[in-house]
Amino acid sequence: QVQLVESGGGLVQAGGSLRLSCAASGSSFSTYTMGWFRQAPGKEREFVAGIRRTDGNVYYADSVKGRFTISRDNAKNTVSLQMNSLKPEDTAVFYCAASLRGGLPNVDYQYAYWGQGTQVTVSS
């Protein structure tokens, strides 16, 4: 089991940057594929980015490709999401999640553990 705590959210102007971090505690962080999801008001939670447990392969939702970068540090049990060129439509609660699934999990039911979320607000 793993416990996840996000940090780094806040208010930023359009075009700005934020870096989200997720600290994991518990066992065997390196055995989890880690993902970031977000949920905007009135919308379903959606996949943003993932980094695979086996080879560190990264994958992104089309809406954030070229703007967001996911990374992990297995020695520090952390996963980060660098967000650049932010847009008002990126406004959401961002969640860190951990999965033991193979492949490239990008749907919320494929992730067993979740953080409490951190708010990101992008003003126009």
User: For the residues shown, what is the average pLDDT?
Assistant: 96
Low-confidence stretches: none
The residue fraction in helices comes out at under 10%
> Helix/strand/pairing class, anyone?
mainly beta
Percent in strands: over 45%
Order of helices and strands: EEEEEEEEEEE
The main sheet comes to: 7 strands, mixed
The rough form would be described as globular
Amino- and carboxy-terminal Cα gap? 40 Å
Oligomerization state: single chain
Q: What is Rg?
A: 13 Å
Count of DSSP strands? 11
Q: Helix count, per DSSP?
A: 0
SSE layout and pairing:
Elements: E1 2-7, E2 10-13, E3 18-26, E4 33-39, E5 46-51, E6 58-60, E7 68-73, E8 78-83, E9 92-99, E10 113-114, E11 118-123
Parallel strand pairs: 2-11
Antiparallel strand pairs: 1-3, 3-8, 4-5, 4-9, 5-6, 7-8, 9-10, 9-11
Question: How would you summarize this macromolecular structure in one to three sentences?
Answer:
With 124 residues, the chain is mostly beta strands.
Explained architecture:
Helices cover 0% and strands 51% of the residues. It is an all-beta fold and 124 residues long. It has strands at 2-7, 10-13, 18-26, 33-39, 46-51, 58-60, 68-73, 78-83, 92-99, 113-114, 118-123. Strands 2, 4, 5, 6, 9, 10 and 11 form a 7-stranded mixed sheet that branches. It has a 4-stranded antiparallel sheet with strand order 1-3-8-7, with no helix packed on it.
